[in-house]
## 1
Amino acid sequence: MRRCALLGLLLALLALPGAAVAAPGASVEVDGRQLELDARQMAADADVPPTTYLVDGAPRQLTGISVRRLVGLTGASADAVSAVTAEGADKALLQLTAPELVAGAFAEGEPLVWIDEQDRTSILRPRTDTAPATIVSSAPGSPLLMRLDGATLLEVRTPIVSTDSAQVGEKVSLRGSAVGGEGQLTYTWTFDDGTTAEGREVRHAFTRPGSYRVRVSVIDTAGGGGSSPAVTIRVGSAKKAPRGGTGSGQGGGGADATGGTGQAGTGADATGGTGQGGTGADPS
């Protein structure tokens, strides 16, 4: 009886608002703060399609969120971070340095984070010519502990867009803004379609229908940086121009306005039909 009462009390405490409950995802230390990224956020921003990596001498197909994009979810910029360090459940460490965080740094594919069937959150550093691939994982149902080194956060605001609903080929205007920073600020846009652009104000046209999560990252000359929240732009197929109809008909006629009558022509639409004038006797 007493054991049941204690169990009920424990469940009630876990249900209280603000109660900490372990869950898969990432717990990231950045600029003196601890930020929690859950499985839903990571899935919504997954940008690495199924890719084959060589792990422990065997091919393994993985998909998930790139480390670059995960860094952006914390509000930091991957271009302003000196290193990303992750700690597994067995205290094993994995580190990616600044050159390894550059897009395309690894031949096989991007370093990525994913959650497996056992609710373990893992991170992969792909193999190189001199080192094998490395993976560290959290305990099942727990977040992966990560740290961003050298990150000084800038506050980057949600981009202002001319429209959040466009057609294929239509140019969308976007403008970014940041608070703080030292010296010149560099704005880099990612459009979720494999393309990028630089500049505080840019214009972009999407070439395929879909839903795109657009972000802007900002770095300053002192090594600070940040990334904006994503803004979603939905792109539909370009509208096709209506096709005009054709038609023919025999028009009535007469020698003048008082002449005989004829049969009106018919057409598929308002542009259809031409009539052939008839003849008639002048009543005068």
Note: The mean pLDDT is 82.
## 2
Amino acid sequence: MALANGYNLLVVDLEEKSTGVRELLEPLVLRTDGLIVSARIPKDVVDWLAELDKPVAFLGQPERQGVVSVGMDSVEVASLLAGYLAQQGFTRIGYVGYPRAAWNVERLRGLHAVLDPAGIELMEFNAEEPTSEAGERVAAKVLLRSDRPQAVIGCNDLVAIGLMTQARALGFRIPEDVAFAGIDNIPTSRYVTPALTTVDVFSEATGEAVMKQIISMVTDQPPSDELRRQPLLIVRDSAKRVSGDDIPAKAEELSKIRRVGQVVGSGGCSYNKGSGSQWRALPKDFPPISTVPGYFYSWRDFGFGGVTRGRKALCSPRAVFGYLSLCGDESRRRGHTKS
């Protein structure tokens, strides 16, 4: 769009920063005809930009009236998703947010606006960054608890996909045991298994609309009327309510295992990634060996460590994914206890 109209486009990643934003933007003010700025910046920077003698359009909704902005209403986006999950009959919903982002507060406001009047509990968690890897890291904290959410909303599709990936590794069925939903409708969201329920915020169309707007401002043309787009709920299999009795939380089983030490070889507890030995310390109804690494992450995060020959047994996933043996000789059995 910019090149087609004879303009060069300079891109600066503000990285959702809360400090140093103005210092990054000041050089661009001197070198450009106009600015398109994410609304996810501190209010004082928005006020400064609004007073400049230069065309400025915001991508998103800044906390200031009287400025030109193009984008979605984050409150409406979250409300749309919350309404669908409430209709599905979920009574305990988790939200994994990204508190560094300005839109996070608006998303929470939209969720509470729908869920609170319906008496639906909203459980709040935070991801370290808005990525799939961060979703995987926080999954154990979200899921391995006696009051785990029946459905979990990721602050974006990437976080939701990371949560789903680790949920499967922990042995949860989706959506039978726990449902998931995201926001953005990135292309990958339809190809994961199960396909991810999400909200389409029309990122590409919004980018095109804000570019039209800034070109109109720079050339003193009548402004575009494409200032707002309505979000679209995309219903897929990851968040469809499955009838039947609620499956007991696996955290309750995990919490029973306090310590693992030496046990007899025949009924022992040994895990060797190469040989695929069974992990006999797990409850008999736990999933196959392929899910074991996920439980080690859970034990690590929640402090369920063990001791063998005076040493920590479950100290890090690095030990797990190589070779870890907790078996003593067959004549000795000690330390395997349940509370």
Note: The chain has a mean pLDDT of 75.
## 3
Amino acid sequence: MPIQKRPVHGLRDVNQERRDRETLNRVLDHSFDDSRRQTPAEKLAGVPTLRPTGVTPVNPAYPPGHLYRYGENKSPGVTDMTRAFEDAILANYGNTITVPDGTYLVGNLSPFQGAGTRVVGQSKYGTIIKAKAGTTGAIFNFASAASATSAFNEISNMRIDLNGEDCIAIDLSSCNNDVVRDVFIVGGTSIGTAI
């Protein structure tokens, strides 16, 4: 009687496993260009005036709303993170932006234009927003926001170091029902907050 050949199940495709590992490593070290991971909100963020093509994530391995998705803090306290903060806020109007512990050098941010936006640090003393040299005006600015867009926003759980600059940490002069919670402001020559 002839020998019957049975199908073999469970053989691993060694080449496919290698390709999967390489792709995963490129995603984890952020060298993998995966522009498909741009969310619809990121595509429309800032269009047409601030960012004509929308906001493109720098590190798409991080979830939407995480600050590191929009910029890499290569040298904490030295790398200018203003653009990363602006992109995170633009792409996440009405949502939460998570800022992990670390020191972030930031200048004047564009006014908040989306109601319900929350910028939340990981911890009150571990998340430090530091004013970069030459900063004037407000770092977090609600003052020149359009009508009804500066409502129900929140800045919480962080330390703002004005770094000896003559600037304002949070300008609340044109807001409605906004919240500032667990924010520690130090080091300025100005008033600190404007209400």
Note: The helical segments are 14-28, 40-44, 82-91.
## 4
Amino acid sequence: MARSFITKDLKEYLHMPLPTFSANSIKGRVAETIIQELFLAHDFNVFHYGMERSLPGIAQLTRKTNGPVNQQIRSMPDFVVQDPRNNKLHFVEVKYRASGAFGIQDIKGTYPWPHAFFIIVSPDHIKCLTYKQLSLGKVITPTCNNLLIKRVDLGLDRMLIVQFGQLAKKFFTGCEPSLHLERRSPRPHRSTSTQIAAWSLAAVAGDFTSGKGAVPMVLSTPWIPRRSTPAATNASFNGLLMSR
């Protein structure tokens, strides 16, 4: 029977001071998970496409070399999503910014994915611009009106975006709710940042998963999301591309 629990190791993790890089990495992973679940809530197919998930272990190699191939690998978008209503595919890059600001200057080097959507998650808003818009000088600021809720080309439900925005705010503003985790069989080894990101998101989503909210999330096992394709089984994605 599933039950809520907090292990001694988990308590130590949650109270352990983290280096700035690790903390930012965890927040970035949480932002990715929130956006991934937003698309899944719309019945999109979600394929992991980022460097570390599509090519496990290659991050160590790309740190030791430079060049156009290196840059293209390192800039791979986080996800490819498929709209079930028209089968269109979209590249999606997710960034967390505490300041709520993002512009073309934040993209390093040449970016070879001109059709990608950049979704910027902050404690206050979820905003979005395409790479083409960014390259033409548009920027995301705390006061701009480039809200994800206003993008008609993705066709996402306004109320769901608002609910997931509330979840993001709940996490990133530093609340300390009760932790609700489901005890399951052991999982394959994951990096510490991924593990903590999953635990943290499960913690702040307590109100939503306990029936007080309407967000249909699967946070007891956030590393195996519904209809999401892990890198190890992306053969179906490759077949989908070849069929188009």
Note: The chain has a mean pLDDT of 73.
